[in-house]
Amino acid sequence: MATADILPPFMFLLLFSIFRTTLSTNSPDITADQSALLALKSHITHDPHNLLATNWSTSSSVCNWIGVTCGSRHHRVTALDLSSMDLTGTIPSHLENLSFLQSFNISHNSFHGSLSTELTNLHRLKHLNFGNNSFGGEIPSWFGYFGELQSLLLYMNNFTGVIPSSFDNLSKLETLSLFNNNLRGKIPISLFNCKELKFLSLFSNFLEGSIPIEIGYLSKLQIQYLDHNNLKGTIPSSISKCKELTFFSLYDNFLEGSIPIEIGNLTMLENLDLGLNNLNGK
Ligand SMILES: *[C@@H]1O[C@H](CO)[C@@H](O)[C@H](O)[C@H]1NC(C)=O
Ligand SMILES: *[C@@H]1O[C@H](CO)[C@@H](O)[C@H](O)[C@H]1NC(C)=O
Ligand SMILES: *[C@@H]1O[C@H](CO)[C@@H](O)[C@H](O)[C@H]1NC(C)=O
Ligand SMILES: *[C@@H]1O[C@H](CO)[C@@H](O)[C@H](O)[C@H]1NC(C)=O
Ligand SMILES: *[C@@H]1O[C@H](CO)[C@@H](O)[C@H](O)[C@H]1NC(C)=O
Ligand SMILES: *[C@@H]1O[C@H](CO)[C@@H](O)[C@H](O)[C@H]1NC(C)=O
Ligand SMILES: *[C@@H]1O[C@H](CO)[C@@H](O)[C@H](O)[C@H]1NC(C)=O
């Protein structure tokens, strides 16, 4: 008290300005989110319904912008849903500053380009849906670093290369949807460390090699589409460990041998499609 009383007024000003400087350099606020979203807006080359053009205006708070949701605790952007807005554009690296983002949905648009390092900082992401766009290039391995990820949907794009082996770290992943891309190579065994997987959709790619016996690790798997690929070898009997399986399709591959009798143990199975293979005893 006594000390405060004798502090000259300019000391308060000095302390205050140091405090403010510290605040603005160490804890980015909603203005960081605003700049990131304005950068995204500037990377949209076609917005036929003028949704962002008129609505994403600095005269209103970011949290009131269409498609934007802010969290109540930190007042930062937690969800971005621009799905089905007929947008064309690319993803700028500025989005790395949306550090509180948990859900990111730009499905059913015409976003294109490849994903290099743009989003590596978004480690809080739980849901990412880039489905039905025109993204190309490889699926970045840094998706594997997002330990909170529950759903990763990259279906109906033009992704090439292999499924990254880094996905083994996705211990909360429940949904992985990569169908309708140009993915090649084997199904990585690391994928079967995603013990929470319930929905796995890899159909209409060029995946090859055999179905790993490790598939039996996915004890919570309910739906699995591996159809329209180039898978070879036999169906592993370990599939019978996926007790929750209701939909299972291997249609249109190069599988051979006999159908494992243990499939009969899958009591939840409603739909099994093994057509267009070279299996015996069908
Ligand atoms: C932007 O859109 C949101 C949601 O439709 C609406 O609540 C808000 O008033 C709009 N803001 C402006 C400035 O048009
Ligand atoms: C993303 O958008 C699609 C299409 O509108 C919708 O079906 C889906 O539920 C959304 N996903 C998430 C995680 O918000
Ligand atoms: C993210 O924010 C920081 C601090 O405001 C800024 O220096 C940096 O340029 C931003 N990153 C991008 C890619 O815009
Ligand atoms: C893909 O998105 C487009 C809009 O960009 C939409 O018209 C089309 O119906 C979608 N296709 C599917 C199969 O959902
Ligand atoms: C997996 O997670 C562990 C611990 O969180 C980390 O040390 C490791 O670098 C991660 N590996 C990959 C490939 O993400
Ligand atoms: C997909 O990518 C390949 C090369 O990676 C390219 O030749 C092809 O035109 C692309 N297709 C579409 C629909 O973008
Ligand atoms: C699975 O099926 C096989 C062959 O029909 C049978 O011998 C075995 O006891 C079953 N295992 C379980 C755990 O039900």
Automatic annotation (TrEMBL):
Tell me the domain of life.
Answer: Eukaryota
Domain Leucine-rich repeat-containing N-terminal plant-type spans what residues? Answer: 32-70
Which residues belong to the signal peptide in this entry? 1-24
Mind listing the UniProt keywords for this protein, alphabetically?
Leucine-rich repeat, Repeat, Signal
Q: Which PANTHER family match?
A: SOMATIC EMBRYOGENESIS RECEPTOR KINASE 1 (PTHR47988)
Q: What is this protein called?
A: Leucine-rich repeat-containing N-terminal plant-type domain-containing protein
- Originating organism: Hibiscus sabdariffa (roselle)
